[in-house]
Amino acid sequence: MIIAVIPIRNFSESKKWILDHQNAVDGFEFRLDFMKIFDLSIIALLKEIAKCPIIFTLRKKSQGGECILAEKDRLDLIQQLCTLSPEYLDLEYDVSHEFISTITKSFPAIRLICSYHDFSNTPDNLDRILTKMQNPLFFTYKIATQAQSTLDALRILQFVQKNSKTHLLTGIAMGELGQCTRILAPVVGSYFNFVSVQNECNVPGQLTVSDAREIYYVQKHNKNTKIFALLGDPVEQSIGHFFHNQKISTLKKNAVYIKLKVHPDELSSVVNITKTLPFSGFSVTMPLKKTIVPLLDEVDLSVLNIGAINTIINNSNTLKGFNTDGFGAFNAVKKHVQTLPSTIILLGAGGTARAIAHAAKNWDMQIFIFNRTLAHAQLLADAVNGQAFSLSELHSIKQYPEALIVNTLPNNVNLFSVIPSVSEGSHQLARDCHGQTLRGLAMTTVSNFFSKNNIVLDCVYFPRETDFLKKAKEIGCICVSGYDMFIEQARLQLALWFPESSQDTA
């Protein structure tokens, strides 16, 4: 059930939220602890306007609520609220058995929710907590814990999936890292799926009604829904969830795409736990493209040369890795030019550069690689029959006025980290720039050597027009954005995940 949470502050505001969303949800939770002055007639009228199942919640402070009444007074007020006959009443796990019995005897039609909140972490003993909560007078159970990592969120999903077979259970990992538990609630069998009205409750990680329905299509999810996810850190700026979920909906697939922030140290544990959940595939971004390879069962032949992957298919817990970056980049470039140039100049030698370099080798291009660490550039150059240079030698690209120039350098690399590996001339540039990024160094140097016939691709897609591309555009170069590359490599990912619909992913 999709339940929109409404903080009841006054009649007019609450009525607006109800009317705006009543056709998009299955019910509402009235957070009555937000009321400053309690008026049962107002609550009764709002309930009548809603015309759908209602949860009454008068949450006390110790469990994350706003109610400041003494506990006896709070419980007395809850009894008064029950006279309005809500379909559900939320009671904290530590409310006395005597009070629960009183409510059940006086209002037998009201279904009781037993809720537990931990605002500091996600305990290891979730099963034991659920056992202690059990009471035959409760209709359903809700456990909400604070996610300190993506692993915590996945543990909540795993816990709900296992226990929803025997209990009506809702599991939530609170915080930004736990948002996936809200998106995937129907997939693992959570009874309720709580969403907000324009995030009015200001709960980190909580989805708005519109995001839940229009980005993730949660109303369509069920226990047969396949999960696809982006693994990486950072993932906040990724637009993959917009593109992939829209495409999945267009293809009429029972699937959903989410983002998971995964640190390299927790990657192995994340991969293992996802095998217990209905994950069918992954996108992989920095800094995991190389790190994840040893955790896979198989890799595509092309990956053996590249040494990095950006796509995984999970077939019955057999993980196979692919890389769509290289051909995605060239597909993007080919949308702007009829014929590929014979020369490619790569800035950087990381996972993305490796994929593009090997794709360029397939096109028999002359390959030049510039990197802050010459040894890394040389390793890649040796693998693709190219030539390696340090960034201090960027002036040499002027010799190739029609080359494809591809910038794969990340945004967050500090310039001073490259000082030991560049020439004395670049040392002076570093001192002059006072700490601009490595990407800034590349732009400062290479901008003087663009030729108007160059084709320039920047693999960063946010912002869509980077400073690097702006400078190239000023010179008159043909510019290809990282966004274009993202779309093309994402289409190739979809074709791998849904091969039966590969003609429809273009």
Question: Short summary of the structure?
Answer:
This protein is α/β, with parallel strands linked by helices. 36% of the residues lie in helices and 20% in strands.
Structure description:
The chain is of the alpha/beta class and 506 residues long. The protein folds into three domains: 221 residues, TIM Barrel, CATH 3.20.20.70; 84 residues, Rossmann fold (3-Layer(aba) Sandwich); 160 residues, Rossmann fold (3-Layer(aba) Sandwich). The chain is built from 19 helices and 20 strands. Strands 7-6-5-4-3-2-1-8 form an eight-stranded parallel beta sheet. A six-stranded mixed beta sheet has the order 10-9-11-13-14-12. Strands 17-16-15-18-19-20 form a six-stranded parallel beta sheet, sandwiched between helices. β2, α2 and β3 form a beta-alpha-beta unit. α6 runs parallel beside α11 and α14 runs parallel beside α15. It is elongated, with a radius of gyration of 28 Å. The two termini are 34 Å apart. About 5% of the residues have low confidence.
Topology of helices and strands:
Blueprint lengths: L1 E6 L3 H11 L5 E5 L8 H11 L3 E4 L13 H12 L5 E5 L4 H10 L4 E8 L7 H8 L6 E7 L3 H14 L5 E6 L4 H5 L1 H4 L4 E4 L12 H6 L11 E7 L7 H11 L4 E7 L5 H8 L4 E6 L13 E2 L1 H6 L4 E5 L2 E5 L2 H10 L8 E5 L3 H12 L3 E6 L2 H11 L2 E4 L13 E4 L16 H10 L4 H9 L8 E4 L8 H9 L2 E3 L1 H16 L9
Parallel strand pairs: 1-2, 1-8, 2-3, 3-4, 4-5, 5-6, 6-7, 9-10, 9-11, 12-14, 15-16, 15-18, 16-17, 18-19, 19-20
Antiparallel strand pairs: 11-13, 13-14
